[in-house]
Specification:
By secondary structure, the protein is of the alpha+beta class. It has two domains: 424 residues, no CATH class; 60 residues, Glutathione synthase lid domain (Dna Ligase, domain 1). The protein has 16 helices and 26 strands. Strands 6, 7, 9, 10, 14, 15, 22, 23, 24 and 25 form a ten-stranded mixed sheet that branches. Strands 1-21-20-4 form a four-stranded antiparallel sheet, with no helix packed on it. Strands 16-19-17-18 form a four-stranded antiparallel sheet. Helix 8 links the parallel strand 9 and strand 10. Helix 2 packs across helix 14, helix 4 runs parallel beside helix 10 and helix 7 crosses helix 8. The longest helix has 22 residues. The radius of gyration is 22 Å and the shape is globular. It starts with a strand and ends with a strand. GO terms for molecular function: ATP binding; glutathione binding; glutathione synthase activity; metal ion binding. It is an enzyme of class 6 (ligase). Its EC number is 6.3.2.3.
């Protein structure tokens, strides 16, 4: 709940100073008129039990290890996701591209790319069960830069406006959870780029290609990563799928070549997670989506470090999350986990059920509807149905579409004990019952962790009012936040 109590508001000059710090440090969204809008934020961090956070630090790289190994098991991806492809058109496109890249049986690879898994695993700390996975993010898994900046923002407020910071702090008996997300993701990318250049017997500056949406407004988070890579000696370039459709070519030994740039070492997708990302009004409607989606396939046939590969996108889908959740410990061990590691992964997975006639009957007659969320295969906001609305939605889903949906146990996140002062679009509001989502980043290259912390690469905290379903910072009621440990 958002409440107004202006007597507790900060002086306008303090708010202006903090917003200017944000924009000066790239914590902003680009507007249509090329101005910048600051990212909404809380005035002080959330708190979390240190042992809960340390558990996540231990388990999240194991989740990534499992997902990475599943993503390279191409026969399993095709056999396990074929029904989902029949139920969801975009999934069908992805699986079709995957078959072209890795053979109809998943055993005959025509792909030369090296997998660079930059993954964000999102958790909420449940009141009774502890931290549970909300979703895996394996494509366009950005905002590590914003995560780092969120920690720096609260440090700035603490140092420059300490009385305001202390007033809204939950406890003074906590320590900041350091966050090197920006630096560690860049280091992981650098390791992969150096390996690619070694494979070609080359030296010199690596080249990093970021594939972006046209007229993107979330450019500053992207540019922060590019600036960090430039500090490490990279040349960075940005292109849309449409631009790449006429600018890519093949060099010797399957070297990926970009027109007027030269060889590419790393490709990083910040788009491509939905059908509309492959649509261009400038191209013929009958062929544009096919043309642009095949750009990914063309890239994958070259010796380049790539995130996200088609198989990584399939392996981090909601459909695979449900399959992984319902696997046995022994099945996890088929993909390189020890028994102890498999137990740790199991400990953070919330229950998920496929949509079947018997499940629908159970849900309508026996289930506590408020304890479940209905999810489809979409990424980003607007793809979940909650509570009593689920039954109505289930009636509208055709049986042939069942495999594109899943019921997931609802996570009841721990609410903050104190109200929180928030700033959105320059306006102050005091919010009761704020809850937070923590996303932990990991980076693996060719199956191995490539950060200074065993694959872990920092975190992103997004907070929202407990009564809001859409918690994204970019699209939703989410706020940029940071973390303190008790």
């Amino acid at each position: 709940m958002t409440i107004s109590n202006e007597s507790n508001y900060l002086p306008s000059e303090i708010v202006e100073d903090i917003i200017e710090w944000e924009i000066m440090h790239g914590v902003a969204f680009k507007q249509h008129d090329s101005t910048a809008r600051h990212v909404p934020f809380s005035i002080a961090p959330m708190k979390m039990k240190r042992n809960h956070f340390e558990h996540l630090l231990k388990v999240t790289p194991l989740v990534s290890k499992l997902i990475n190994n599943i993503s390279e098991d191409h026969a399993f991806l095709q056999s396990s996701l074929s029904k989902v492809a029949e139920a969801e058109p975009f999934f069908k496109i992805l699986l079709s591209l995957h078959k072209e890249a890795h053979g109809e049986d998943g055993l005959s690879s025509f792909s030369a790319r090296k997998p660079l898994l930059i993954m964000r695993t999102d958790f909420m700390d449940d009141r009774e069960q502890g931290a549970k996975v909300i979703e895996f993010n394996g494509i366009a898994a950005g905002m590590a830069p914003f995560g780092s900046r969120g920690t720096q923002l609260h440090r700035y407020i603490c140092e420059q406006h300490n009385s305001a910071y202390q007033k809204w702090l939950e406890t003074d008996e906590a320590t900041v959870a350091e966050n090197e997300g920006l630096e560690q993701v860049a280091i992981g990318i650098a390791v992969s780029a150096i390996e690619i250049k070694k494979d070609f017997g080359e030296s010199g500056s690596p080249t990093f290609l970021m594939v972006v949406q046209e007229s993107e407004d979330n450019v500053y988070d992207q540019h922060l990563l590019e600036l960090e890579l430039q500090k490490l000696g990279f040349r960075t370039v940005r292109r849309t799928f449409e631009q790449l459709s006429s600018q890519l070519s093949t060099g010797q030994s399957k070297r990926l070549i970009l027109e007027n740039v030269g060889p590419i070492d790393v490709v990083y997708l910040r788009t491509g997670y939905q059908c509309s990302d492959y649509y261009s009004p400038k191209l013929d409607k009958l062929v544009c989506c096919q043309t642009l989606s095949r750009v990914r396939l063309f890239i994958e046939r070259h010796h380049v470090a790539m995130n996200a590969t088609i198989s990584q996108q399939l392996a981090t889908s909601k459909a695979m999350q449900m399959l992984v959740t319902n696997m046995s410990i022994d099945e996890y061990m088929n993909w390189g986990l020890t028994y102890e590691e498999a137990l740790l992964v199991k400990s953070v997975l919330a229950d998920m059920n496929p949509i079947r006639k018997e499940i629908i009957k159970w849900f309508n007659s026996e289930a506590n509807k408020e304890d479940w969320v209905l999810k489809n295969q979409g990424e980003g906001g607007g793809n979940c149905v909650f509570g009593a609305d689920i039954s109505q939605k289930l009636e509208l889903i055709k049986p042939q579409e069942y495999d594109a949906w899943a019921l997931m146990q609802r996570i009841y996140a721990i609410e903050r004990e104190k109200p929180v002062l928030t700033i959105r679009d320059g306006k102050q509001a005091i919010v009761n019952h704020l809850i937070s989502e923590i996303g932990l980043f990991t980076v693996y290259y060719n199956g191995e962790p490539v950060t200074e912390y065993g694959g872990y690469a920092g975190y992103l905290i997004r907070s929202k009012p407990a009564n809001e379903n859409e918690g994204g910072i970019h699209s939703g009621q989410g706020l940029l936040d940071s973390l303190m440990l008790i």
